[in-house]
Amino acid sequence: MKRILFLCLGNICRSPLAEGAFRTLVTAKERHAEFQIDSAGTAAFHIGKPPDPRSIAEASKHGVEIASQRARQLHRDDFRRFDWIVAMDGSNLAEAEALRPKDGAARVVAFMSFVPGTAIRDVPDPYYGGDEGFGEVWQLLGAGMPHLLAAIDAAGDGSPRS
Ligand code: 4NP
User: Fold this and answer.
1) Is the dihedral of CA 108, 113, 114, 115 positive or negative?
2) Is the dihedral of CA 86, 90, 91, 94 positive or negative?
3) Contact 75, 106 (CB under 8 A)
4) H or E element in which residue 94 lies
5) 17 forms bridges with which residues in the sheet?
6) Segment holding 58, helix H or strand E
7) Looking at residue 162, what is its pLDDT?
8) How far is the CA of 11 from the centre of ligand 1 (A)?
């Protein structure tokens, strides 16, 4: 079992879309059973809430259901419970690394490092912008997910650090 956690700030805009996009990709490949997939936020603002309606609408446009997700905050135990923590931006990545317990082996990576041919380093936070920002997030997620999956496959099973 490969355990993948998508991480953003609020766990209501970007990481719910990332969770839905990755689940859709591995389901299409009939590889869903190999993965445990979840998402979380570094902040506590939105714990227990469903995704932002604009994220739900963007996912729906692509036939992906994310409305049943509920926001939660990143916990120290996530570094033991997941093999990969995939951060939407550099700030999420830095906050995660600051929380890592000594025995937490999760590999924390920047999602944008899997998107080829772009200088963009962060998945832009669409929360304070217009609807088009959610389309841009979806597009970046779609461009990077196959490469993230390839990296996970290349790392093999179990602890990616071993
Ligand atoms: P997310 O977007 O990190 O992609 O879920 C945000 C959601 C909420 C806030 C900021 C970003 N907020 O400040 O409440």
Assistant:
1) positive
2) positive
3) no
4) helix 90-99
5) none
6) helix 53-61
7) 41
8) 7
Task: Report the DSSP pairing between strands 107-110 and 84-87.
Answer: parallel
| Tokens read off for 40 | 């979380």
Atom of ligand 1 nearest to the CA of 9: 3
- Whether the pLDDT of residue 146 is over 90: the answer is yes
Using CA atoms of 37, 41, 47, 49 in order, give the dihedral in degrees to the nearest 10.
Answer: -60
Q: Quick one: which atom of ligand 1 is closest to the CA of 12?
A: 5
* Centre of ligand 1 from the C-alpha of residue 52, in Å: 9
Nearest to 40 by CA among 31, 49, 32: 49
Question: How many Å lie between the centroid of ligand 1 and the Cα of residue 99?
Answer: 19
**Tokens, residue 157:** 């099973």
Nearest CA to ligand 1 atom 7: 10
pLDDT digits (tens, 9 = 90+) for 1-40: 999 999 999 999 999 999 999 999 999 999 999 999 999 9
- The answer to pTM > 0.85 is yes
Q: Which residue ranges have their beta carbon within 6 Å of ligand 1?
A: 8-14, 41, 45, 125, 127
User: Residues, the chain, total?
Assistant: 162
Q: Residues with catalytic annotation?
A: 8, 14, 125
